[in-house]
Structures are given as C-alpha cells and as structure tokens.
Write a structure and sequence with these properties.
Shape: globular
EC number: 2.5.1.3
CATH class: Alpha Beta
GO molecular function, one term: magnesium ion binding
Strand order of the largest sheet: 1-2-3-4-5-6-7-8
Number of strands: 8
Pathway: Cofactor biosynthesis; thiamine diphosphate biosynthesis; thiamine phosphate from 4-amino-2-methyl-5-diphosphomethylpyrimidine and 4-methyl-5-(2-phosphoethyl)-thiazole: step 1/1
Largest sheet: 8 strands, parallel, barrel
Protein name: Thiamine-phosphate synthase
Radius of gyration: 16 Å
CATH architecture: Alpha-Beta Barrel
CATH topology: TIM Barrel
CATH superfamily: Aldolase class I
Order of helices and strands: EHEHEEHEHEHEHEHH
Organism: Pedobacter cryophilus
Helix content: 25-40%
Structural class: alpha/beta
Strand content: 15-25%
C-alpha cells in the first residue's frame, strides 16, 4: 500500500522553553503537513496525554502525525505512523504490530540497511547523517551531498525505489543541493526549533522544498 510521504519532515524535540505541543502548534500554523513527535523524556502515560492534544491540532490542520520509536502507542491515539530509529530493528514485526494502514519509516546509515528496510516493508527511509547533529548523536560518517547522490545512483542501478529523506544536521543553505540529488525530501529539527523564529524558519525550508 503506497503511502503519502511528505518532502519536509518536521521533528519535535525536548526543549526547556517550548513544549512539544507548542512546537506542533507553531509548525502547523506555518504550514507543516508532516510532524514527527520525537520525545525522549516522558513516560508512556505522559506522552499519550500530550499526543491526544497534538493529534487534535494535527487533525485540525490536516497534518500527518508520526511518532518516533513507540510503535506500541500508535493505536492508542490518532497517529498515522511510526518512525523506527533502531537500524537493526525487525520491521516485519513492527509492521505486524501497527498494521498495513499505518506509515512505517526507518533510519539508515548504510546502503545495506536501506536494502534491508526495503525488503522488510518500510514506506520511507531517513538516511544520514548529512552532517553534524546534536539532536541524535552517533558515530556514523557524515554523508554530505555526495553521499546521497551515490545512494540514489545505487538504488537506480538496482531498480529499487523508496522515498529517501536526508536527516541529521541539515541547514537551510544545504536544501537546494540536497534536493538536486534526487532524494525525496528532508527532515529538520534543531534548525527550526532552535532558531529565533521557528515559524519563519519552517516557512523558509518549505519554500525551498515545495
């Protein structure tokens, strides 16, 4: 079942001065059509309480809501899918858990992981990191623009298709070169959330991508 996959994935994050709910409201008002709720600091009960409020906002704006990692919560609120950050996770089991109707995204650092996710039913793959990121630190090599070009070419050579999303340290000045590689889209977190005006920052990314 082919799913709608936005070209601009906006991610919330744990911030001391702006709640996930506030971040979602700002993003939706700026035109976000895809929000990934990425909370690392709350219990399931706390997340669900917040998710019901976030889902209501997303519903008002017609925005797709994805949750990071917590697949067991997908059916407990109005959530359209899950993004799995564990690159070695068995997506077939997660698909059984969430069902065919929900969107299933996964993270990848290597071509081998991309292939594995395609075989196991991912609807899209977040690849990277593009560059330095403090949002989700890891030891993987930075892809840069060239890395995405190479992976797109390898997929084309093997006649494989899946939406690839560039993630990890993407800044506004990187957008045009990244989109020119043929990737499907870009995921942004801190470059929007930690800017002086998150709403304006979202609109700036959106203008370059759509």
């Amino acid at each position: 079942m082919k799913k709608f996959i936005s070209r601009l994935h906006y991610l919330t994050q744990d911030l001391p001065n702006c709640s996930h709910l506030e971040q979602v409201q700002i993003a939706c008002e700026a035109g976000a059509n895809w929000i990934q709720y990425r909370c690392l600091s709350k219990s399931d009960a706390e997340m669900l309480e917040e998710l019901h409020q976030i889902a209501a906002i997303c519903d008002d704006w017609g925005t797709t809501l994805i949750i990071t990692n917590h697949a067991h919560l997908v059916h407990l609120a109005d959530i359209q899918g899950v993004h799995i950050e564990d690159m070695d996770a068995d997506l077939t089991l997660i698909r059984e858990q969430i069902g065919e109707d929900k969107t299933l995204g996964a993270s990848a650092n290597t071509y081998e992981q991309i292939i594995n996710h395609i075989k196991n039913g991912a609807d899209y793959i977040g690849c990277g990191p593009f560059g330095h990121t403090d949002t989700k630190p890891n030891d993987a090599s930075h892809w840069g623009v060239k890395g995405y070009q190479e992976e797109i070419e390898r997929l084309q050579e093997n006649k494989l298709e899946i939406p690839l999303i560039a993630v990890g340290g993407v800044q506004i000045e990187n957008v045009e070169l990244l989109m020119a590689t043929g990737i499907h889209g870009i995921a942004v977190c801190a470059a929007i959330n930690k800017s002086e005006n998150p709403g304006a920052a979202y609109k700036a990314f959106h203008q370059l991508i759509f």
